[in-house]
Amino acid sequence: MLPFTDKWFGEARVDTGHVEHGTFAHVKLTASDYSSEVNSYGLVRSPWNSLRDDQFARYFGAGSALVVAPTIFISQDDMPTCEIIYEVVNSKKSLFDLTAALAGNAHQPVHMYTGGQSGTRNMAERLAALGIPRTEMHDDMYNFGYYFFFSNVKSLWRYHLFECPASCSSDTPQDQCGCHCDAETILASDYKAALLDSWEAKFSTLHLNGTQMLKEMLDLMCEYSKAGGMLQGDSGTSGSASDPFFWIIHGSTERLTQLMRLQDRVDSVSWSPFLFDSNIHPFTTSCSGHHEHDSLVFGAVDGYEFTNREYFEYLNPKKASLPYVYDNFQWKHCEALGYDIADRKWWNGTQVH
Question: What span, in angstroms and rounded, lies between the C-alpha atoms of 40 and 47?
């Protein structure tokens, strides 16, 4: 893939996740004195991701011990496809629906894929023993294994059900700086229903005992974590901007948004009550910074201190004040792959589902 060459964002080693050649070779994370912004090793990384490595990491898979090549990979069908992008762009949406679609299937899987996970030794075998279907590329194991950890750990951390050390010295071994959780405590908490009931239903679709499977998956997650594992590549966390590839992902979502605004495909720009409501948090119904009149957290842009609404209007591609507009989106890439936009099927006649 062109983006992962030395001319672009670099190829990551499959074992360490490091980029060792090109412009972004050996880029290091910085340390910070602000404990809320760092992990246990004092690195600017999600606090629930206790990876000691001071370089940004991309693992592109899961299921292995630290510094061992991944064994579980995501299915190509789970990535943002031409069909998904088509559905996002070619249906009128409210601003709320648009941001949800862009934050979800139109871009989130790319974060998951490029970030990946390490420190989950023998996960394929462990999941198979629990009854998760094992396919050639282990894609079901990726979805029900890695994604289970990916989607739950941050919410459990916010509810103080996944605790990480306040600090570990830089020479503390990874397996001695693990985070801690307890399945029985999680299941007995008042937050279990909001956080995990949907997973019971998902496990039941595999004809498994949902309640038992949930307990066993939490046990596995806590076992990996205590041993210093279940470590995430940076792109798959709230520290995703540490990976330079972040900027091509988000440029693409801005391009789609701009196209929809140019073609009047957004039928409502109401911000009420707030946008991005998917992050479950125990202390507020919405995250600070997501409201219409919240100020941009990163300060002045072009000399202006914008609120979210003001910045949204500033980026209106129909106004001459915007200093750039993306090239027309002609579906050239999808068409080059053989996707007929008009008939919504591949040129070989295969219908898209």
Answer: 7
**Domain that residue 150 falls in:** 2-77+116-241
Decide if 98 is inside a domain. Answer: no
Within a domain: residue 311? no
Instruction: Quote the mean pLDDT of the chain.
Output: 83
160 is a domain residue: yes
Question: Is residue 349 one of the residues assigned to a domain?
Answer: no
Which helix (H) or strand (E) is 103 found in, with range?
Answer: helix 95-103
Question: How many domains is the chain built from?
Answer: 1
What are the Cα distances from residue 172, in Å, to 41, 175, 343?
Answer: 9, 8, 58
**Sign of the Cα pseudo-torsion (219, 220, 221, 223, in order):** positive
Distance of alpha carbon 88 from alpha carbon 82, whole angstroms? 10
Q: Give the list of residues 6+ apart from residue 192 with CB closer than 8 angstroms, or none.
A: 186
Beta strands 93-94 and 266-268 are parallel
CA dist 153 and 133 (Å) reads: 23
- Residue-wise pLDDT for 59-107, tens only, equals 988 989 999 998 888 766 677 888 888 888 888 788 888 888 888 888 8
Residue among 287, 161, 178 at smallest CA distance from 223: 178
Instruction: For residue 328, give Cα distances in angstroms to 16, 102, 260.
Output: 39, 19, 11
